[in-house]
Amino acid sequence: MAGSVKWAATAAGLAAVVLAGPAIAQTATEGRTTYPAEFFAAGQPTTALDMVARLPGFVFDAGGDVRGLSGAQGNVLIDGRRPASKTEDLESLIRRIPAGQVLRIEVIRAGAPGVDMQGLPVVANIVRRQGGAIEGAFNAGTERHDDGRWAWETGLELSRSLSGDRRIEASGELYRYVDEDAGDGRRERRDAAGDLVRASQADQTGGGEGGRLSAAWRQPLAGGTLSANGLVLAERYDWSLEDRLRHPGPGLSVVDETEEDREAELGASWERPTAWGKVEVIGLQRLGDETVASSAQSAGGRERFDSEETAGESVGRISLSRVLSPRLTIEGAVEGAFNWREGEARAEEDGVVVDLPASDVRVEERRAELMTSAAWRPSGRWSLEAGLRVETSELRQDGQGAAARTLTYAKPRLNLVWTPESSREWRLRIEREVGQLDFGDFITSASLDTGQVSAGNADLWPAAKWVVEAVHETRFWGEGAVTLTVFHEAIEDAIDRVPVSSPSGVFDAPGNIGDAERSVAQVRIALPLSRLGVPGGLLKTFVEFAHTEATDPTTGERRRMSGYNPFEAEAEFTQDLPARGLKWGMSAYFGSPYREYRFDEVSEEETEPWWSAFVEWKPRGAWVLTLEAENLTGRGYRLDRTLYAGPRDVSSVALIETRRQSFGPYVGLKIRRAFG
User: Fold this and answer.
1) Domain parsing of the chain, residue ranges
2) What would the pLDDT profile of 256-281 be if each residue is shown by its tens digit?
3) In the chain, at which end, N or C, are there fewer CB atoms within 10 A of the end residue's CB?
C-alpha cells in the first residue's frame, strides 16, 4: 500500500507542476492536429509504433473484445484505413512500418469532417510516403535466461509502393521463446488448523516456437481502392512441472502439457468516394484450431486431459457516409457475422474415463447489426458525435447441454469534446457496450497442476454495460502531456465464476452473476526533461486505481469481481542522445494482488514489481542494435488458495495452499537493418 501512495503522490505532484504549461505549436485544423516526421526526429524512432508512443496525450489502444468490427480494431488508422484483420493485432502491424516510411501522423478528434471514427473520441492516422523503391527491414534477436535456455527470433518485412495508389507488402517471422512466468519455488498445503499436510519443491519450465507469414495488397478498382490481406500462423507451447515432495515423505509428481495453435485469415476492403459521400465494404474470414494434451503422474496414480477445438468467423460490413457540410457528417452501416466453435474434451484417471460436463459441444452465433451516427462540429472549440447500434443475434449450442436463445441489444453512444484552447481538451463519453463472448467458455477445460476443472456453461450471456467516461488532457513543452481519466461502468450480466451442476457432480464454470460495477481513476503523464536539465530525457508514468463490486453467487455477499487489479502503475524513463546515435532507458511495473472466487475456492495472486533497461545504438542510419535486460532484480510470485470442502457458504475450510515462485533476470540482443 505504501508503494501505491508513493506513486499516487508522485503523479499528483507532477500534474500540479505541468497543468499550467504552455501550448505546443503544431499544424492544426478543426479536429485534426498534424505531426510531421520531423517532430519525432529527436526521439530517433525505429518504427511507426515508436512514433505513435511519442504523440502528446495520445493513448494507443490496440482494440477490445466488443462485438463486431466497430470499436474492435483499435484507434490507429494506416493511410486513412483500418486494417481488415482481427487475428493480427494492431500493435504488430504498426511495429512493422519503418519510421522512414512515415510522412506524418494526424491526431483526429470526434467531429472532424470525412473521418469514420467508429465511435472513438480520438484516432491517429499514420500517413506513409509514396515511392517506387522496395523498402523493409530485417530483424534478428536472441535472449539468454538465467536457467541457461536461449530464445531467438528472426523476421523480414518488405513493402513497395507502385504507381496509381498500388502497394504490396509481405512479412514473415520465426521464433522460439521462453515462458519467463514458469519459475521455480516451494509449495505447501496446511489443514484448517494450520498443520502441515504437504510440502514440496516445484521446478517449472515453459516455452515454445512458432512462425507467421502475412501479405497485403492495395490497388485501384472500379473507381475506388481495394485492399486485401492474408495471414497464416502456427505455434506450439510446451510446459512441464517436476514437484519433488519433502513432506510427509519423499516423492515425485510430474505434469506435462503441450498446446498447439494454428490460425488463418483472409480480409478485404473496398472504399470509394462518390459525389455524395463515401462507401466502404469489408469482408473477413478466420479459421483456427487448438489442441491440448496434458498428463500427470505421481505415486497416487496417473491423470490425463486432452481437448481439441476448431473455430471460425465470417464478418461482412457495408458503410455509407456523407459530408453534409464542413461541420456535419452522417454515416450508416450494416454488419453481419457468423461465428462458430466446436470442441471435444476427454479426461482419464488411471485409465478410467471421467464423465465431464460440456465435453462435446458446438456453439454457433448468427448476428446482424444496424448502425447510424452523426458527427457535428458547431465551432472550433466544440464537437459532438452521437450514434446508435442495434444488434440481434441467435446463439445456439449443440451436443451436451444443448441450448438456443435470441439476443437483442441497443447500443447508443455520445462523444462530446470541448477544446478551450489548442493545448487543452475535455472529453465526455456515454456509451452502452456489449462484450464478445469467449466461445471457449462453453467447452470444459482442466488444469492438472491445480486440479481445477472449468466446466463449459451453455447458459452464458454477453455482459453489457453503461460507460460514463470523462477525460481532461493538457499538452505542453512539445511532447509533454497530462491526461486525467475517470470512468464508471454499470455492468449487466457480469461474467465471473459460478457453480454448474451435472450428473457427475458440481463444477466451477464461467457464468453470469447479475449486476456489477467498476469505477476507475487514471493519471498519465509524459514529462519532457530537457527544460529540467536532462537533455533528451522523457519520463512517462501511469497510475490507475480501480474499485469493482459484485454479488457473490455462492454466498450472496458483496465482493470484488474476479481477475481485476485494484491498483496498477508503470514508469518509464528514456533519454535520446542523437549526436552519439544512442538511446537508453529504464521502466518499472507495479501491481496489486487480484483474486478469483470459485464456488469452493478463493485464490489470490500477486507478482512483485519488476524492472527492465535497454540501450539502443544506431552506428549507421540503417542499423539498430538494442541490448535489453529484463526483470533486473528478479521478482517473486505468490499464489494463495483457500480450498473448501464444498460450497463456500455452507462448508468449512479444507486446505490452505501457498505457492512461492521466483523468476530470474534475462538479457537479450536485437539487430534491425532497414533498407529502401
Assistant:
1) 2-675
2) 999 999 999 999 999 998 888 899 99
3) N
CB of 588 within 8 A of CB of 573?
no
Q: What is the distance, to the nearest Å, from the Cα of residue 2 to the centroid of all Cα atoms in its chain?
A: 28
Determine the Cα–Cα distance for residues 268 and 251; give it in Å rounded to an integer.
Answer: 57
Q: What is the DSSP string of 593-611?
A: -EEEEETTEEEEEEE--EE
Per residue in 163-186, pLDDT (tens digit) is 778 899 999 999 999 998 888 999
- Cβ–Cβ < 8 Å for 64, 90: no
Q: Which of 607, 572, 573, 612 minimizes the C-alpha distance to 590?
A: 607
By DSSP bridging, strand 122-128 and strand 76-78 are: parallel
Integer Cα distance of 83 and 92 in angstroms? 12
Please provide the size of the chain in residues. 676
Query: For 2-675, which CATH superfamily applies?
Result: TonB-dependent receptor, beta-barrel domain (2.40.170.20)
In sequence order, what E strands does 179-277 have?
Answer: 184-191, 196-221, 224-247, 251-273
CB 366 within 8 A of CB 407: no
Q: How far apart are CA 76 and CA 95, in angstroms?
A: 12
The helix/strand/coil state of 10 is helix
Cα 529 to the chain's mean position, in Å?
A: 30
Element (H, E) at 120: none
Q: What is the dihedral of CA 192, 194, 196, 201, to 10 degrees?
A: 100
Shortest CA distance to 497 belongs to which of 439, 450, 546, 555?
555
- Identify the CA nearest to 479 among candidates 518, 434, 536: 536
Can you tell me the distance from the alpha carbon of 129 to that of 135, in angstroms, rounded to the nearest whole number?
Answer: 11
Reading the block at residue 50, the C-alpha cell is 515508436
Note every long-range contact of 571-575, with CB atoms under 8 Å and residues 24 or more positions apart, other chains counting. Answer: 571/7, 571/539, 571/540, 571/541, 571/542, 572/539, 572/540, 572/541, 573/537, 573/538, 573/539, 573/540, 574/537, 574/538, 575/529, 575/534, 575/535, 575/536, 575/537, 575/538
Q: How confident is the model at residue 465 (pLDDT cuts 50, 70, 90)?
A: very high
